[in-house]
Structure formats: C-alpha cells, structure tokens
Task: structure prediction
Amino acid sequence: MLKVNDIRKFFVDELKNERFTIDKTGQKTIEVIGASFLADQPAIFGTPNEEYIQNEIDWYLSGSRNINDIYGTDRAPPAAWKYSANNYGEINSNYGYLIFDDRFFRQYDNVVHELSMNPDSRRGCMVYNRPSIWVEYNEQGKNDFICTNAVTYYIRDDKLDAVVQMRSNDVVYGYKNDYAWQRYILNAISKDLQIESGRLIWQVQNLHVYERHFDLVK
Result:
C-alpha cells in the first residue's frame, strides 16, 4: 500500500515535470484521481496548525453550522470557510453535526453499537455526504458540497481501522485538518470499544494541490 511519502513524491515529480490541469478559475493544479494510501503522517506538505485544529474539532463537536462560531468574537473565521458559507455564515460541512445529530440518525452511536455487537461487521459506516447535497450545496449563496463521502470502521487483528473516502481533498490544508478530525474520531471509537486504535486508510476521488501552494511542494 502506498504511504504519505509516496504521495508526496508524486506531487514533487509532477511539479518538476510541469504536468498540470487547469481549474475553473484558470489556476494550475496538480491532481491525482483515485488516490489510495495509508495516512501514516498528519501532513503531506506543510505543518499542522494545532491551535486551529483544536478550534475546528471543538466547533465540530458543538454541532454549530455557522462558521462565526469557530473562533467566536476573537477573530474572523478562515477564508476557506468564508468562501463556503452563505451571507449568514451558514455551511453544510460541520462534521460533528453530520455524525452525532438526530437528523442524521446518530451515526457515531450506530457504529459503536454495530461493532460492539458484531466485531466482524462491514456495516460500521458513517455517511457524510447525501443525495440532497445537489440542492443544498448552493442554497442561499453557499458553496459547500461536502468533501467527505463516508468513513467505514473495521475491527481487524484486534485493532480498529478506518477507511476514509473523500470526494475531494486539498493536499495542503484539507488533508491536515481532515486527518486530525478522522484520527480524533477513530481514537474516540477505539476508547468506546476498548480496543487499540489502528490505521487510517485514505481514499480520495480527487487529491490536489493548487498553484498558490506550489512553493510548499518540496
């Protein structure tokens, strides 16, 4: 199985050989379609911002769908979230809301129950995206088509592994923050099941780095 170092080398080589695609804004992009690798490092390029990661996890756990609650009145929310939100600061992608709330059938609790009853199960799945996203991603000026499709948990060899399936993942910022959340949830389920936390296997339909971040590809 490929690991983070293999993915890192791919992007370095693509940049060196100037193999790009052009996105809708005209910006050069390096991408991998159908990437699958062991997420054995918390970053592919750059360094995780631990302060922001903790704020984002706390915000996810709060269930708030308003980006102004990420930092409260202390500072403005990150630019990427502003781009995704409507004029009121509302988004779709509060991941805690998607897996803990009654509206989405308390998926976290369902997975813990399923795996506690049947450790060999292949049904330990939390679905983040949904068919209705086609009419919800741009409602009232939003631009938030949920990036995580689903995560499935398996107990194998006395450890809890997770397969993270992403629709789209930005290498520089997206991966670091998504990795932190998925590792947090994996560890939480492991604690609930009293089993050792295992691997994060990362599957991405489109893994990419934007031209504005090419200086980090090294």
